[in-house]
Specification:
Elements: H1 2-12, H2 14-17, E1 23-25, H3 29-48, E2 54-55, E3 64-65, H4 73-78, H5 80-86, H6 88-115, H7 119-130, H8 133-138, H9 150-160, H10 167-205, H11 210-234, H12 236-244, H13 274-280, H14 297-313, H15 316-336, E4 340-343, E5 346-351, H16 354-357, H17 375-392, H18 398-412, E6 422-424, H19 430-433, E7 446-449, H20 459-469, E8 483-485, E9 492-494, H21 500-511, H22 519-532, E10 534-540, H23 552-563, E11 567-569, E12 572-576
Helix pairs in contact: 1-6, 3-5, 3-6, 3-20, 5-6, 6-7, 6-9, 7-17, 9-10, 10-11, 10-15, 11-12, 14-17, 14-18, 15-17, 21-23
Length: 580
């Protein structure tokens, strides 16, 4: 099982293994740059005694609250030696690959040890969950969402709270696990908690389980209280930063209608699959990283048949579990459709439950489309339970067993994942790799590439990650790719609020035309540079734009109009900014 999981994980990420430092994920190189930076910054913070959850190396002078971003603090600390040894891009690839393999192994362990009797059933369910369309799509650079191995561990430790007389030990272990999960994938932890709450409410209310629930409830409640205390102590500072610290925000700037699941997406095939390669993939997701359902009609039909088959042969206690799984899948399917029903790309105007639920605190920061990720484990469990039943009580007729095998093949083979798409990215300039930047920027001083570092032009954070992981010292950036305040109605936004200098550079790079520059424009630019305390402005020969091509010649001419003639240093154009 370990070998199969690892081979499939390497297969999905194989496009990066050829050259981890020279290739990027095509559809989401900006998020890849962000996670590489988080790994480098986390290692630097650990070895230099800096705050791992707040930094002034980005968004000068205000800084960035990493507690409200995806800080993956545990990964950054655990893999710090590897980051220093092989660099952030290669470490990113190792974690991404291990995430996928570990998710399969963790689900296999939970299924084989606690839920089914045959290892074939456990393996089938685990692989369906770990390499589901949603997991493969989030492998496009999301180290948080691909950490699906956390979910079966959380499920295991939650149900361990029922053990009589061990509430203190079990609660403490669960509290530590919750803190770790929060520090790797806070949004995933929140969704897991919601799913388990729905499941437990239905499961506990079933008449077949009421006696069991009454007997286990005292120890369960004591263990839950211990969990809350332990997790609360470990997460006190991160939670304060998240909800009350500087540079916080409430909600995000993402449109929940845009980032909801198209109802037709459940019947469609994902692009990175055998069916997608055959031309059956669709573009119903808001972007290729958010194909959270995309199960295809055969798999949904198979899941319904499995549910009916299991229900028919189940005793009362098993029916309670099946009912809880079914209700959980339906609830999260409906919530994933967002506040307004969208069918095959068309907004119907029909209001759905998320319209009201999405106004609640914390939930208003969630993307409804990602709630569909809860459905994949339910389908995987149904398939595993069915295989287990067929193995322990084989059908009387061979034709029946053959029909089941054909059904599984037709449903699952089209969803076999294909490798992520990758593209060559521009190498980090020698100006950075040789450490020459230190001759033009004081220790801890501010350097900025042009265009400024944001999600669509992430080069600056890649440069900074290289400098930090190669122990060259620190330089700060006036912008960055992060979530921070400044959005409408007090909500968040990606990156800082634009100012004159970065708006002009963005215009020149996008359009290929030099903006009209007046003396008043130059004064506004000088004011921006003074506010940011910029000492050096740098333009590489080739700028890695994550979403579109950039015109480097127009950027150079525009910067020259604003800042004067540059000097050529190694492979970059450099404008040295005199002190204010």
């Amino acid at each position: 099982m370990a070998l199969v999981a690892l081979v499939l994980a390497v297969w999905v990420t194989s496009g990066l293994w050829w050259d981890p430092n020279g290739r990027a994920i095509t559809v989401n190189s900006s998020d890849q740059a962000l996670f590489e930076w988080l790994l480098a910054f986390g290692a630097h913070a650990l070895t230099h005694g800096d705050n791992p959850l707040f930094t002034y190396l980005l968004n000068v002078p205000d800084g960035v609250n990493l507690a409200v971003n995806t800080s993956i603090t545990v990964y950054a600390a655990v893999f710090a030696p590897l980051t220093y040894l092989i660099g952030p891009p290669a470490t990113f690839l190792v974690i991404l690959t291990l995430n996928l393999a570990a998710t399969a192994l963790a689900w296999y362990w939970l299924l084989s040890r606690h839920l089914v009797r045959t290892r074939l059933a456990a393996g089938a369910g685990a692989l369906v969950i770990a390499f589901s369309p949603g997991m493969v799509s989030h492998a496009n650079a999301h180290l948080n969402w691909t950490a699906g191995w956390l979910v079966p561990l959380l499920v295991w430790r939650l149900f361990a709270l029922r053990q009589p007389g061990r509430w203190l030990r079990n609660g403490a272990i669960f509290g530590v696990l919750v803190a770790v999960a929060f520090s790797i994938a806070a949004e995933g932890l929140f969704f897991t908690a919601l799913a388990l709450a729905v499941f437990l409410a239905v499961w506990a209310a079933h008449p077949a389980n009421r006696a069991t629930v009454r007997a286990a409830l005292p120890d369960f409640l004591r263990g839950t209280a211990v969990t809350a205390v332990v997790a609360g102590v470990l997460l006190a500072y991160p939670l304060w930063l998240h909800f009350a610290g500087p540079q916080r925000f409430h909600g995000t700037g993402f449109d929940p209608v845009v980032h909801s699941e198209d109802m037709a997406a459940y019947l469609a095939y994902p692009r990175r699959s055998v069916a997608g390669e055959a031309g059956l993939g669709t573009s119903l997701a808001p972007n290729p990283t958010e194909e959270n359902s995309f199960f295809g009609i055969p798999l949904l039909l198979l899941a319904l048949v499995c549910f009916g088959f299991l229900w028919r042969h189940a005793v009362a206690a098993r029916r309670a579990t099946l009912l809880a799984l079914g209700v959980t899948a339906v609830v999260f399917t409906v919530l994933s459709w967002g506040p307004q029903a969208v069918v095959d790309g068309e907004r119907t105007g029909v209001t759905l439950p998320f319209e009201w639920l999405g106004r609640l605190p914390v939930i208003n920061a969630a993307l409804p489309a990602r709630l569909a990720l809860v459905v994949a484990p339910v389908i995987g469990l149904l398939l595993a339970y069915t295989v287990d039943r067929l193995r322990t009580d084989p059908p009387r007729h061979r034709s029946t067993g053959l029909a089941w095998a054909v059904g599984y093949a037709v449903a699952l083979l089209p969803l076999v994942p294909t490798p992520l798409l990758t593209v060559a990215r521009e190498p980090i300039p020698e100006f950075i790799t040789t450490g020459t930047w230190r001759e033009h920027v004081s220790p801890g001083g501010v350097l900025t590439p042009i265009p400024l570092t944001v999600d669509v032009t992430p080069d600056g954070q890649r440069w900074q990650a290289y400098a930090l992981s190669h122990r060259q010292g620190e330089f700060a950036l006036p912008a960055g790719f992060f979530l921070g305040p400044g959005g409408p109605d007090g909500r968040g936004r990606i990156g800082p609020v634009p100012r004159t200098f970065d708006s002009l550079m963005d215009q020149a790079g996008r359009t290929g035309r030099v903006p009209i520059v007046t003396e008043g424009t130059r004064e506004l630019v000088r004011e921006d540079l003074r506010r940011w305390r910029v000492e050096a402005v740098v333009l590489a020969d080739r700028v890695h734009g994550a979403k579109y091509d950039l015109d480097e010649e127009s950027l150079r001419r525009a910067a020259t109009e604003l800042l004067g003639p540059p000097q050529r240093v190694h492979d970059v154009w450099l404008w040295t900014i005199p002190p204010a």
